[in-house]
């Protein structure tokens, strides 16, 4: 009998939730149309009605679900083979899980969930434990597992559940829901553009280049990594005044030829399995040192409250280092990009990277650069990254100090009025005569207009900019003089 047909017959009580999501790009300009499509399917299992389990040990079925027959020994169950409901996943298959149970005094620690996979239903992988996703705030009777990254050739999975020892008394397994995601392969052209932003070849982002402050590193925008919601989030989030920066790891795959696809898989898991309106992190960094914009900004303001710190997210910026740093060490490129990102925000917000400050939301005295585990019960960001945070804090401090020398060639840069309605005047002062170029950029890093490019004498100058043809929003005026540049933020209101 055909394997897929056999699996369907053997698992008659599995509800295949036909909610295939062929998610297209939205709110994206023609020059950045999506090159990848996310496809997600769900399978839900109700333990009170299913009869087709391959093996059980010390369990009994009840009207509410499955529970241990006796409480003096471990209980376990093994599923039948489950056919993957997606054909031709690319470039990998992401598998998420949500296990619901009841009557567990010891909570999640009383229940263990494992998974294995096969491409032919003959040869199976080793069992992989599915650890709880510590970024979620869930009830004690819900285990939302970390996203699993399986080969694209995976045709079937099996799961195994164990209830541990004396904690098994009264534990009732209610349901289990799997998500299967193909994040779509990133086009070769897009990958080349993104990989050019690796630490080895990255430039400073022109939106926030100012040698009086540590510059924002160049990054891949949401449309750059093919976010299905485009540059703007679909939900509404509060802004937050960042006082603490929280470092995470994804606890996922350590190797990939397509890291933008990994970002898309994380976005899909956060949105379509966790039920959030956007990805939880503010920023992500891949092992090549490429920086990715995470949660969408509000009117050009990057300090949007994320979802990454156990429900105490206010006043934080969350940065996810992609990889599992319980298993491997973070790359030097990724650590340097992390340090640059933290240095930019620390300098912008006048945060001492070596200090500890009270964090009101968690009610903890935290290092201003902390690991996820400093405020939550989790291994995140992994031992191999967490133990390097002291060196990273020192590196951040050093980067800020290296950039602290003031500009003497271009000074007194500002614009007035600010905010403005149609026209604003940009002022600056030169220590010596020379060629000055003034350009305007939008919050997506797109060039808007060149205002001036000519020789100016030493002394103060004023240049008007008429923005009557442009939409309301935040713009950046970049002033270039010799090998130096500075940026002025301008707010257009109509």
Automatic annotation (TrEMBL):
Chain ranges of the N-acetylmuramoyl-L-alanine amidase domain: 237-382
GO biological process, one term: peptidoglycan catabolic process
Peptidoglycan recognition protein family domain segment(s): 217-363
Origin: domain of life: Bacteria
TM spans (from-to): none
A Pfam family per the record: Amidase_2
Stretch forming the signal peptide: none
Location of the region described as Disordered in the Swiss-Prot/TrEMBL record: 195-235
Family of this protein: Belongs to the N-acetylmuramoyl-L-alanine amidase 2 family.
Full protein name: T9SS type A sorting domain-containing protein
Lineage: Bacteria, Pseudomonadati, Balneolota, Balneolia, Balneolales
């Amino acid at each position: 009998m055909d394997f897929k047909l056999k699996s369907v017959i053997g698992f008659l009580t599995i509800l295949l939730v036909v909610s295939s999501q062929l998610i297209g790009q939205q709110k994206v300009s023609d020059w950045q149309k999506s090159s990848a499509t996310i496809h997600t399917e769900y399978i839900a299992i109700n333990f009170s009605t299913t009869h087709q389990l391959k093996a059980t040990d010390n369990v009994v079925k009840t009207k509410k679900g499955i529970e241990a027959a006796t409480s003096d020994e471990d209980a376990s169950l093994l599923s039948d083979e489950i056919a993957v409901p997606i054909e031709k996943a690319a470039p990998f298959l992401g598998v998420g899980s949500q296990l619901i149970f009841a009557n567990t005094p010891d909570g999640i620690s009383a229940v263990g969930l494992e998974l294995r996979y096969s491409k032919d239903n003959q040869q199976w992988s080793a069992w992989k434990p599915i650890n709880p996703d510590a970024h979620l705030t869930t009830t004690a009777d819900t285990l939302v597992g970390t996203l699993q990254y399986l080969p694209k050739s995976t045709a079937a999975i099996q799961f195994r559940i164990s209830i541990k020892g004396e904690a098994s008394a009264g534990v009732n397994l209610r349901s289990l829901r799997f998500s299967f995601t193909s994040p779509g392969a990133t086009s070769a052209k897009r990958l080349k553009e993104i990989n050019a932003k690796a630490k080895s070849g990255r430039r400073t982002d022109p939106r926030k280049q100012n040698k009086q402050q540590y510059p924002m590193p160049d990054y891949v925008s949401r449309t750059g990594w093919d976010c299905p919601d485009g540059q703007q989030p679909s939900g509404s989030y509060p802004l937050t005044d960042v006082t603490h920066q929280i470092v995470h790891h994804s606890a996922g795959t350590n190797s990939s030829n397509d890291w933008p696809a990994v970002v898309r898989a994380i976005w899909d898991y956060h949105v379509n399995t966790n039920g959030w309106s956007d990805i939880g992190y503010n920023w992500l960094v891949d092992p090549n040192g490429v920086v990715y914009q995470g949660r969408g900004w509000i009117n050009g303001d990057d300090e949007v409250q994320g979802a990454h710190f156990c429900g105490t997210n206010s006043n934080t910026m969350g940065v996810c280092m992609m990889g599992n740093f319980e298993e491997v060490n973070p790359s030097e490129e990724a650590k340097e990009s992390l340090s640059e990102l933290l240095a930019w925000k620390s300098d912008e917000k006048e945060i001492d990277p070596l200090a500890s400050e009270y964090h009101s939301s968690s009610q903890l005295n935290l290092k201003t650069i902390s690991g996820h585990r400093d405020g939550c019960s989790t291994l995140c960001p992994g031992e191999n990254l967490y133990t390097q945070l002291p060196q990273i804090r020192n590196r951040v401090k050093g980067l800020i100090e290296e950039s602290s020398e003031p500009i003497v060639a271009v000074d007194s840069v500002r614009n007035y009025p600010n905010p403005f309605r149609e026209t604003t005047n940009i002022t600056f002062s030169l220590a010596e005569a020379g060629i000055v170029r003034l350009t305007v950029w939008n919050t997506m890093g797109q060039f808007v207009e060149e205002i001036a490019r000519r020789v100016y004498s030493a002394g103060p100058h004023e240049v008007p900019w008429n923005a009557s043809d442009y939409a309301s929003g935040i713009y950046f005026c970049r002033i270039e003089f010799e090998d130096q540049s500075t940026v002025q933020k301008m707010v257009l209101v109509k």
